[in-house]
Specification:
Helix content: over 70%
Order of helices and strands: HH
Shape: rod-shaped
Number of strands: 0
Largest sheet: none
Radius of gyration: 18 Å
Number of domains: 1
Strand content: under 5%
Length: 75
């Protein structure tokens, strides 16, 4: 049965977030170039967008499943 979660989108968001934090830490402590820091911030922005999209998709999926369950119970 369906679980009502969006595991793929959530996983992508988590991976992007971890990558962004790792790049920021490397840039700060190893003195990496400014382009690496910009890349990390862009990666963090992608993380936020994917995460918000995953939450929205999850909410919509749960609503559809609830409507389907109500329809099936009514039949």
């Amino acid at each position: 049965m369906a679980t009502g979660k969006a595991p793929i989108s959530g996983s992508i968001a988590i991976v992007l977030g971890v990558l962004a934090v790792t790049l920021l830490v490397l840039a700060i402590f190893d003195g990496v170039s400014w382009s690496t820091v910009v890349g990390a911030f862009l990666n963090l922005a992608l993380f936020v967008m994917v995460w918000r999209g995953a939450k929205e998709q999850d909410r919509e999926y749960r609503e559809r499943m609830e409507r389907l369950e109500e329809r099936l119970k009514g039949d």
